[in-house]
Amino acid sequence: MSSPIYLDYAATTPVDPRVADRMIECLRPEGAHGNPSSASHEFGRRARELVEKARVQVANAIGAKPATIVWTSGATESDNLAIQGVARFHADRGRHIVSSKTEHKAVLDALKQLEREGFDVTYLRPGVDGIVQPEQVREALRPDTILVSLMHVNNETGVIQDVGAVGRLCRERGVLFHCDAAQSIGKVPVDVEAMQIDLLSMTAHKAYGPKGVGALYVRRTPPVGLRPILFGGGQEFGLRSGTLPTHQIVGMGAAFELAIAEKDEDVDRLRSLRERLWQGIAKVGDVEINAESADRVSNILNVTFHGVEGESLQFALRAVAVSAGAACSSGSDEASYVLRALGRTDQQAQSSLRFSLGRFSTTAEVETAIAEVQREVGRLRQIASG
Amino acid sequence: MSSPIYLDYAATTPVDPRVADRMIECLRPEGAHGNPSSASHEFGRRARELVEKARVQVANAIGAKPATIVWTSGATESDNLAIQGVARFHADRGRHIVSSKTEHKAVLDALKQLEREGFDVTYLRPGVDGIVQPEQVREALRPDTILVSLMHVNNETGVIQDVGAVGRLCRERGVLFHCDAAQSIGKVPVDVEAMQIDLLSMTAHKAYGPKGVGALYVRRTPPVGLRPILFGGGQEFGLRSGTLPTHQIVGMGAAFELAIAEKDEDVDRLRSLRERLWQGIAKVGDVEINAESADRVSNILNVTFHGVEGESLQFALRAVAVSAGAACSSGSDEASYVLRALGRTDQQAQSSLRFSLGRFSTTAEVETAIAEVQREVGRLRQIASG
Amino acid sequence: MARYSPLVIDHFDRPRNSGRLPAAPDVIEASAGSVAQGTSFHLSARLSGESIMAMQFEAYGCPHCIAAASWTTEHLVGSPIEALARWDWRPVAQALEIPAEKRGRMLILQDAVKCLAEIGLQPP
Amino acid sequence: MARYSPLVIDHFDRPRNSGRLPAAPDVIEASAGSVAQGTSFHLSARLSGESIMAMQFEAYGCPHCIAAASWTTEHLVGSPIEALARWDWRPVAQALEIPAEKRGRMLILQDAVKCLAEIGLQPP
Ligand SMILES: Cc1ncc(COP(=O)(O)O)c(C=O)c1O
Ligand SMILES: Cc1ncc(COP(=O)(O)O)c(C=O)c1O
Question: Which residues does the UniProt record annotate as the domain NIF system FeS cluster assembly NifU N-terminal (chains C, D) (predicted)?
């Protein structure tokens, strides 16, 4: 069998070759191999310069000042640092947090841990369109609410939340607002000032950068109180200790710069590719787009295939690398909690697939994917009921 | 000025070109770019295989089973996960921890945070040779002691602790033992079984692997109770969530395999290079090796230059990239707490430099370093007192 | 996703006897499970004298279910009708290397076969 | 480590007037600070009439200290003795772009210069 067609860009993207080149320069013997914290010599200072240049690139991608960017190991760490950090720092002001049922596990499981420690979390349920209404957030706020955590773009459905409205609301009420924007960069505009976001999680590997590096935007004026998770050398303004991985950070900076520069072009191209994919898939009949009516990013298409069992669907389509939900360790046996929160039954959620396109997707690949879907869905329905 | 001579391998090493090649394969478009947690397709499974192969390589380097290796973002995270993880999990069994004054900041600052939360920490003071006697540990143990954290190789002096004796002691007393082995791999033998270590911190970038990836060995039988720091997708047996960075992990695996394979050769070569360096430095007179009488790794030489002010010494020797202490964000103005714990005065500590050699150090570089030291130390002493 | 044995893949990709035999006096049918449960089987068999002359299945379920139904029909065609009554999930699970967590689904298939047996062995 | 201005580097690498003038009736000396403190200066000057004919320094301290002492001797040689009394740390700190956290060390240098001034301006 030839290599499958990669339509799982929302799980992770390949590194853009232009980004890889910049990283490889760092990894070569003549590269900037110093420790960016070794301020006493050339090697350290050269590495530090690269780190600071990348900090500007990432800051620019979200309309922030460079000193607000804290490097992390990815959005999982950013989410945990934001949520645990705020909760532990502000615990004596209040112990209530507002979030939603369709957040990424990195948010939900951090919140679960806080619940075990005595915090109280309200999980808002989005409508069938996947949208949490700002009004729901307003109603959930209490005098002891210290944090609202709401994602920007959902990783399974591609639904775009109106985080600007939520940010405004939180700012008015003096509640901190954290936004998981792991899926946003290069897909939708992000502006932490305009959106009044206090903490924003990012990761490189959803935007053609390397896995294992991310960042947390932390508003500086007035400062957001945050207790670190990792203590030590005191890097990153004391908020995140650990040796800075120059090549990884350089990769993230380069990736974000490209993502912003090529956003409009990428978005338009992917929207029409996705439309072509959907037209082809729709031909098999009895299929539905999840969260169809919501504003969604242009590269994600989450489809429920009625009358086809999920595991067989996925295996039948193994020539097309897609996924049934988030790429987590639990495997794909459990039905997606995101789709269930949108009102899908377990069966429907299990018979859903997320097709996610990206920068290197081609029309030919989409055509092949359509052909596979048409043949295999037809075949499985045939097996199921003659 | 031509590029300085790099003698700061203890701060971070360049990536070995053989390791870089393996990483670069992963970063290229045809590389294993899938998410190792995407078990539903080829791309994910290929990445997973690479991750598991590296897990075996790292486990082999410390005499452990692969399932005991948890990937992290570096030794800072490993130290924090071990220390915070044990403390928070076992808090109801006891709240006393034993460690030493010469640990890395990642250990000390994690402990300081626990002290703020009501834990009680005994910091043992090593002798002038930098060694913490197992007897000191024994005396410090209390009925409510839950953890002993003692590093293997000190990053400033190169002193090797007798962690085997401490491990035995802890095992007898039913106290968990964490060991920071960030500086050990490829320099001294590490065997978690023989040394009776329960938790062992590692990092790739001190052993010619990439920065930003590390691992924590977590004993499995009987299991060490550990509360995670990063919650989310449930990767790494639920102990450390976050997308696994395939290229980084592949780099760490390859680096550790090489480090073990070439250990004896590297150690011998570096020992004689270091001896040559010391013979040259000693000629300037009024110099002392720190922790001279202890067993030390072969690549570190920490020297106090009497009668020379530290900052000027460092700047005068800028053609040689060395450092005065750990590469942390605080800058080099503060005197090394490690040397002070060994009985050095502030002045002496400040007038000390750590020369650390490595795989790519050459005799010519050592000769140049000697010439620089002789000229500049002589010159500064001349300026100081005619 | 669980990995599948080569035999599972073979039966999943090229199922034997997929479909439903047209209703006829010598055709018996039985089903078990439901789509809501995630697994359902429909079996039909043409009997002649003491023997199963033909057999077809419909299956809604995971690859193991489809493969198990296919393998089962393949092995039962040509057998005496009593083979239906003696059938249980163990041989198919072993042949196809079906993991333990799928046992519940195999029991649904067993229900369908047993039901077919009851009908087939009824005194006419 | 703080970065150093080009002028600091120049004076650090090629200090002017490093050393100690041999004791003589027309040579005055003064010192301030200590090695234990991390900074110490020794200044010596040869006077002739109202003028400073020559000046040398010894300095144990950071690059800013060495450069400041060097710069100071360079600027004071040829000046009237009263210039010693008027000297303060500000011009040298400005010329060498010495960061604020090093002010304490500059005050030690100032002490040494003031002390020299007192001796130099003593009625003979
Ligand atoms: C919305 C969202 N948040 C958080 C994460 C976790 O980020 P990372 O993989 O960088 O740990 C992901 C993807 O994995 C995501 O899609
Ligand atoms: C002994 C020791 N522990 C921990 C660390 C921290 O490791 P990392 O740089 O991987 O965060 C280092 C080096 O920085 C070290 O030398």
Answer: 4-114
Closest CA–CA distance from residue D39 to any residue of chain B (Å): 8
Q: Which residues of A are catalytic?
A: 328
Q: Please determine, for residue C2, whether its predicted confidence score (pLDDT) is greater than 60.
A: no
| B374 in contact with chain D, both atoms CB, cutoff 8 A | no
Please state whether at least 3 CB pairs lie below 8 Å between chains D and C.
no
Kindly state whether residue C1 falls inside one of the protein's structural domains. Answer: no
A189, A174: one domain = yes
Q: Which residues of B touch D20 (CB under 8 A)?
A: 386
The helix, strand and coil proportions of chain B, stated in percent and rounded to the nearest 5, come to 40, 15, 45
Name residue C86's beta-bridge partners: none
Which range of residues forms the domain containing residue D43? Answer: 6-120
Q: What residues of chain A, 12 to 51, have a C-beta less than 8 Å from chain B?
A: 12-15, 17, 20, 23-24, 27-29, 31, 33-35, 37-44
Q: Which ligand is nearest to the CA of B182?
A: 2
Tell if the CB–CB gap between B33 and A15 is shorter than 8 Å.
Answer: yes
pTM recorded for the entire structure: 0.95
Mean of all residue pLDDT scores within chain A: 95
Does residue A239 contact residue A72 with C-beta atoms inside 8 Å? no
> Can you tell me the ipTM of this complex?
0.93
B268 and B298 share one domain: yes
pLDDT in tens, A141-200: 999 999 999 999 999 999 999 999 999 999 999 999 999 999 999 999 999 999 999 999
Q: Work out the average pLDDT over A301-329.
A: 87
Intra-chain end-to-end CA distance of chain D, in Å:
46
Cβ(B151) – ligand 2 distance below 6 Å: yes
State the pLDDT confidence band at A331, using cuts at 50, 70 and 90: very low
Q: What is d(CA A278, CA B114) in angstroms, rounded to the nearest whole number?
A: 54
Which residue among C18, C38, C39 places its CB closest to the CB of A383?
C18
Is A178 near ligand 1, meaning CB less than 6 Å away?
no
- Specify whether B319 is located in the same domain as B375: yes
- Best-predicted range by mean pLDDT among A311-320, B343-352, C62-71? C62-71
CB distance D36–B311 less than 8 Å? Answer: no
**Residue A10 Cα to ligand 1 middle (Å):** 9
Q: Is residue D1 situated within a structural domain?
A: no
Instruction: Quote the pLDDT of residue B277.
Output: 98
Tell me the torsion sign for CA atoms B189, B192, B195, B198.
positive
CB of B228 sitting under 6 A from ligand 2: no
Residue nearest to atom 15 of ligand 2 (CA): B182
**pLDDT attached to residue C37:** 87
Q: How far apart are CA B85 and CA A125, in angstroms?
A: 32
Query: Which amino acid belongs to residue B156?
Result: E
Both B107 and B230 in a single domain? yes
pLDDT digits (tens, 9 = 90+) for A63-117: 999 999 999 999 999 999 999 999 999 999 999 999 999 999 999 999 999 999 9
Quote the minimal CA–CA distance from B98 to chain D in Å: 33
> Which other chains touch chain C, taking contact as 3+ CB pairs less than 8 Å apart?
A
Residue B42: list chain A partners with CB under 8 A.
3-4, 318, 321
Phi, psi (deg, nearest 5) at residue A374:
-60, -50
B91 burial level (CB within 10 Å; 0-12, 13-18, 19+): middle
> D32 to chain B nearest CA, in Å?
13
The CATH code of the domain that includes C79 is: 3.90.1010.10
What is the spatial order of strands in the sheet that A287-289 belongs to?
Answer: A287-289, A300-305, A352-356
Q: What is the pLDDT of residues B275-321, one digit of tens each?
A: 999 999 999 999 999 999 999 999 999 999 999 999 999 999 999 99
Q: Say if residues A245 and A17 touch (Cβ distance below 8 Å).
A: no
Range of the structural domain that residue A140 is part of: 17-261
**Phi, psi dihedrals of residue D68, rounded to the nearest 5°:** -65, -40
Query: Which pair of tokens denotes residue B348?
Result: 């002496």
Quote the number of domains for chain A: 2
Question: Which one of B180, B252, B297 would you pick to mutate in the ligand 2 pocket, going by the greatest count of ligand atoms within 8 A of its CB?
Answer: B180
Reported as a single tens digit per residue, the pLDDT across B7-33 is: 999 999 999 999 999 999 999 988 899
